[in-house]
Amino acid sequence: MKKKSTFAKDGKLFGKISIIDIIVVLCVIVLAFGIYAKFTSNSDAVSSSEKAKIEYVYKVKGVRDFTIDAFKKGGPVYDQDTKEYMGEVTGVRSEDAVMEVSLVDGTYKSLIVPKKYDVYVTIQVDGKYNSLGFYTNENRYIGAGSTVNAQSKYTTTGGEIVEVRQIEE
C-alpha cells in the first residue's frame, strides 16, 4: 500500500489549497503593484518640482494663411482632447511649407508647397520642472517631440512641440 503525499494531493497543497489558486492570487498581487507604481511614480516626482515659467514652441505643418492669422490673435491654448490649459500664445512665425518628393532615380527633392505654411507658435505657461522635464500646473508633460492637438478660440490644429525652455521672470 502506497502512502499519498500530503503536500500535493489531487492538485491541492496540503489537500486544502489549490496550487492554481495560489498562482492566480500571486499574479493579481503583482499586477496591482505594477498598476500602483505606474500611476503614482510621476505624480510624486512632479509634486516635488520647482515652479517655473515655461516657454515652448509648437510647430504646425502645412496650414493655410488663415490659421496663421488665427494664432496671431493670441489668447489661451487648450489641449483639444483633455481641455487642459496649455498656456498663452506670445509669438507666431511662419515659413513656406516644404515637402520631400521621391524622384524616379531614387533621390529626394524638397519642393515648396504653394499656399501652405509651417507655423511656429510660441506659448508661455506657468508650470514646474524637475529632473524628468517640464510640466504645466495641471501636471501635463511638455517636452520636445510631444504631439499636441491644440485648440484656441479661433483655430484647432495638430502639431508637435519642437523646443522647450525655462524663462526668467
TrEMBL record:
Source organism (scientific name): Monoglobus pectinilyticus
Residues spanning the membrane: 20-39
Record keywords: Membrane, Transmembrane, Transmembrane helix
Name assigned to this protein: DUF4330 domain-containing protein
